[in-house]
Amino acid sequence: MTTAKKKIVFCDFDGTITVNDNIVAIIKHFKPAGWEELVQKTISTEISIKEGVGSLFRLLPASMEKEVVEFGIQNAKIRDGFAQFVSYCKQEQIEFYVTSGGIDFFVYPILAAFDIDEHHIYCNKSDFSRERIEILWPYPCDEQCDNDCGMCKPTVMRQFPADEYERIIIGDSVTDFEGAKLADRVFSRSHLTEKCRELGIAHTEFDTFYDIIEAMKQKG
């Protein structure tokens, strides 16, 4: 008799839980010189996520901490159905983790309203104590990943073995590509949908979290 695998969700933050990408929105808003080329190189994977995001924030002086933090929090718009999805996961005893390439100064305050255990939120950290804003990387790639992810989603996912867990990833962008390759089920939008098509990875497209709830109810 085989025991059913335990469902576990790894959900991206920027452009997934939020409607927009906060990192790009912050940089676009403050427009430091040279930002456009760095964003393009990161999205096209010409440079790693860690290098790209670290370099983007280094364009901003740490003296702008108050303005940057306030904009990062106030600019975010939560995708429809997210609160209901968190409740659905609790009700169905599905473990829910936020795996975010975002930064602590906006991720934690924005998620505070949703009763998510802080230990279930993985994101990058920030340091405003130097001349420029520095991003810190507490969740680096393990020996099985050489993508220089910054916050390495596959490394987090590997803590939950495939023989015990049905690993479900929800995401939209370049930070989710490697995780999608490991997942049993992928909910995608935007760049992640394009990448799944390109790589032949089975995926379910979504617009709101209500779509995901319906799809998960149907499959059981």
From TrEMBL:
Recorded metabolic or biological pathway in which this protein acts: Amino-acid biosynthesis; L-methionine biosynthesis via salvage pathway; L-methionine from S-methyl-5-thio-alpha-D-ribose 1-phosphate: step 4/6
A GO molecular function held by the record: 2-hydroxy-3-keto-5-methylthiopentenyl-1-phosphate phosphatase activity
Record has NADP as a keyword: no
Gene Ontology biological-process entries: L-methionine salvage from methylthioadenosine
InterPro entries in the record: HAD-like_hydrolase_phosphatase (IPR050849), HAD-like_sf (IPR036412), HAD-SF_hydro_IB_MtnX (IPR017718), HAD_hydro_PyrdxlP_Pase-like (IPR006384), HAD_sf (IPR023214)
Gene3D superfamilies for this protein: 3.90.1470.20, HAD superfamily/HAD-like (3.40.50.1000)
Source domain of life: Bacteria
E.C. designation(s): 3.1.3.87
Alphabetized Pfam families for the sequence: HAD
Keyword Ribosomal protein: no
Leader sequence segment: none
Keywords linked to the UniProt accession: Amino-acid biosynthesis, Hydrolase, Methionine biosynthesis
Enzyme class: hydrolase
Reaction catalysed by this enzyme: 2-hydroxy-5-methylsulfanyl-3-oxopent-1-enyl phosphate + H2O = 1,2-dihydroxy-5-(methylsulfanyl)pent-1-en-3-one + phosphate
Free-text function comment from the UniProt entry: Dephosphorylates 2-hydroxy-3-keto-5-methylthiopentenyl-1-phosphate (HK-MTPenyl-1-P) yielding 1,2-dihydroxy-3-keto-5-methylthiopentene (DHK-MTPene).
Family membership noted in the UniProt record: Belongs to the HAD-like hydrolase superfamily. MtnX family.
Protein name: 2-hydroxy-3-keto-5-methylthiopentenyl-1-phosphate phosphatase
Native source organism of the sequence: Paenibacillus montaniterrae
Lineage: Bacteria, Bacillati, Bacillota, Bacilli, Bacillales
